[in-house]
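Re: Re: token formats

Sure, here are both.
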Amino acid sequence: MIGKYLKPIPIISFVATCVGIVTIISTTNRIKPIESEEQVMTETPQPIEEYQYMLKEHNGKLGVFEQDKKEPYMLLDVNIETLPKIDIIQLKQGLKIKDKQELNDRIEDFSS
């Protein structure tokens, strides 16, 4: 009964079609593995072009820097070595903070 509706196809056509489908699926669903925390930090965040402050490690403590300043205008009593490794990596690179509200939120996060 089924033979009435299906036409035989050459095996080479069948195999070529299957290989093509598998190739399409494998190339469109490819997931790039994360190899390190540094890769997460350098690839994931979107850069903030305009910022007022930067949180950055300064002599082992949490420094608050005004935009484009070399010395912190505030140094907090937060030893960065006690923070999670991912936070330490971010603070060594510097976190750009857009405004006073975000600065206060971040300071609270790192202080608790």
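Second one below.
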Amino acid sequence: MHSEANGTWDSDSADALKRFQADQNLTPDGKINSLSLIALGLGPKRLTAQSHAPADPSKADPAKTEAPKADPSKTEPKTEPSKIDPAKPDSSKQDPSKTNLQ
């Protein structure tokens, strides 16, 4: 900086901004724009899920809440691959041509 900060936007201020913009790979035009503000850390803040979570869960937006987890006691048991005997036909997969439709 060539002079002391005095709270006035003048040619020294614009020159300092141009140097900053060039250092940040921005167009060094000396004008305060959105990219310059973001590079200075003064741009819009991104909100996180934690910073926006309502204190009262009953007021939560149902569209943004997580789906409830499935109850493992109510799901079908999974057959382990090692217990399947490929020599035995699977009775759950019936041949539709052999079904008796009356």
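The CA atoms of residues 10 and 16 lie 10 Å apart. Residues 10-48 form one domain.
- S.
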